[in-house]
């Protein structure tokens, strides 16, 4: 389980990215990299880390489901993810 402060920091970054998205796109289109450099560092989408919605784990993240591999495995075994069944051959 990730620390609450790390999760909160990532949420703050996501909010900044959303807030400055239009401005960043406009500046990039114009090629004004000096003005782009003046924006907050955390306004860049590259700084946001994909994290599990349940545990906050950063590694082993599955984009399609928004959860980590560990939570995915548990939920799949319990049948909580529709359409996912354990492979058998």
Model description:
GO terms for molecular function: rRNA binding; structural constituent of ribosome. The protein is mainly alpha-helical. The chain folds into 2 domains: 1-49, no CATH class; 50-84, Ribosomal Protein S14/S29 (30s Ribosomal Protein S14, Chain N). Helices cover 48% and strands 4% of the residues. The chain has a two-stranded antiparallel sheet with strand order 1-2. Strand 1 and strand 2 form a beta hairpin. It is elongated. The two termini are 34 Å apart.
Please write the string of helix (H) and strand (E) elements: HHEEH
Task: Give me the count of strands.
Answer: 2
Unreliable sequence segments:
none
Q: Average pLDDT value?
A: 95
Measured between the Cα atoms of the first and last residue, the distance is 34 Å
Total helical segments: 3
Q: Bin the strand percentage.
A: under 5%
Global outline: elongated
Placed side by side, the strands forming the largest sheet appear as 1-2
Share of residues in helices:
40-55%
How many separate domains? 2
Q: Report on the biggest sheet.
A: 2 strands, antiparallel
Rg calc:
18 Å
Structural class: mainly alpha
Lay out the secondary structure:
Layout: H1 4-30, H2 33-38, E1 61-62, E2 67-68, H3 69-78
Antiparallel strand pairs: 1-2
